[in-house]
Amino acid sequence: IAQPLPDRLASDMSLGYVYGKDGYVPQEFELIRVAPAGAVSTTATDMAKFMIAQLQLGRYGNERILGEVAAREMQSPQFRPAPGVSALCLGIYETPLHGLRMIGHAGDTVFFHSNLFMILKEQIGLFITCNSPGGSSLRNDLRAAFLDRYYPAQDAPRPPKKETRQRIPALEGTYESMIYNTSTIEKYFFPLLQFTMKATPNGTLMASFRKDAAEIEEVGPYTFRPVSGVQAFHGDQVFVRNSEGQVTQYYLANAPFMPFKRIPLHATTRFTDVLKTICL
User: Fold this and answer.
1) At 1, is the pLDDT very low, low, confident or very high (cuts 50, 70, 90)?
2) pTM, full prediction
3) 53 and 114 housed in the same domain
4) Does one domain contain both 138 and 173?
């Protein structure tokens, strides 16, 4: 579609909103400028057509946007960062939950929060987009409710408690997101995303991020899930070991594009904040 948006379509364009003292306040149209991130403005109807074309291996009605071979390749695993972590495909990624292989893509801007997922075997696709900050939880909850209703999860078998307790100490520590600029000025404008893992007397881990905390338990070697037993939006939590058997990385299984690394004490914000205070 031509830019700016033609007048005949402008009235259908949704604005983003934030909540202020007088209610929801409309915001300006968002432009995504930072590579490699990208965005597109389209209709929910066209997103549905796109999903149908994917489910039919590149065909929609009598039209074809992709050859069948290309469509299968697009939906196939291309890179898996670690065992137990979902694979990246081409433009989409795996998001398996409840024993189902699903592919799709979630996305966030400042005001909009969207999710698209497809269950290929069942020929099902679902797309949702929300135009205010609270939409992040809504899109996650909708997928969870859909799967709980139509494809209830089976309880995952737990490994022996003795083995879990032996592994727990090696998982404690601070983990930091690897998605940040390290050598440009942007490094100083964005706070580092760090969280801690601490053992509990119950043989579980307490994951803490700022003021939030969640207790997780092992459901497989180095694979954890909330003690509630419910798989979160981003799937299980996976700890990755290096060739020497040391835990060095952490992944949300269904977010293979968001790796975390385990960091030493002197690299934590707690340590650097204290150091800066002393120096001042």
Assistant:
1) low
2) 0.84
3) yes
4) no
